[in-house]
Amino acid sequence: WTHILEELSLRSVDYRALDLMPPFPWVSHPDAPRGLKILGKRQLPKTDFIARVGQRDHMKAAFEHGRFRIAPATTYSDPSLNPAIRDEELSVTAVRSGDTATIRPYDPKTGKSGDPIQAIGNITYSTTWQENFFVLCLTSGYRPRILDDFEANSLLVIHNVNRFLIRLEKAVKRARPDLTLFARPITYYDPYRVDPKDLEAPFAKNFRYAYQREYRAVWHK
């Protein structure tokens, strides 16, 4: 993104004049990030904490009534979601150069393979989590750009993470006793340097999302 901005600057082109923004997180410049404005003179905790960002009405309901939206993982593949949220949560995908691959046509009648075919471009392969799961997405600590990225206007700070998870687990158990809670930070991976079989889809994401420092609560059987 920095390289693109520099190239546009060399050509005296305003980046807002081009259709470049959908694939990238929101850029607030020249205005200050919304996440700084809402803090004002408030001080964030000096100890470790997690946070939830969203619309004010939803965060108020979470704070006053303990009401959180826990969604199926498949809902995050919705193309209408912004780039910071949209993802294929059930899959872990890796990329390899086609130069290292050998492709041969196979004849099912004879059982024989034909001559090698040159691969064009990269080869993408995935490991898919077979069971859908429920997820609550939070963030470890807080970075001011997060509100702009998620098109949010409110921040809920959770000081006592263990107590929060215990209460969350009890609440979900009353509605779905068949589900088990797992909670920890996301592992971010380089798709060019990973074997998908080594990663657990609910807690692994492409490192293009690493700036989010996501802390995730997951429920599955």
Tell me the overall shape.
flat
Computed structural class = alpha+beta
Poorly predicted ranges: none
Q: Sheet bearing the most strands, described?
A: 6 strands, antiparallel
Run of helices and strands: HHEHEEEEEEHEHEEEE
Helix content: 10-25%
* Count of DSSP strands: 12
Beta percentage is 25-35%
Tally of DSSP helical segments: 5
The assembly state of the depicted protein chains is single chain
Q: Specify Rg, calculated over alpha carbons.
A: 22 Å
From the structure above, extract its key features.
alpha+beta; single chain; two-stranded antiparallel ribbon; 25% strand; 12 strands; 221 residues
Account of the 3D structure:
This protein has 221 residues and is an alpha+beta fold. Helix content is 19%, strand content 25%. The protein contains five helices and twelve strands. The strands form four sheets. Strands 1, 2, 7, 8, 9 and 12 form a six-stranded antiparallel beta sheet that branches. Strands 3-6 form a two-stranded antiparallel ribbon. Strands 4-5 form a two-stranded antiparallel ribbon. A hairpin with a 4-residue loop joins strand 4 and strand 5. The model has no long low-confidence stretch (mean pLDDT 89).
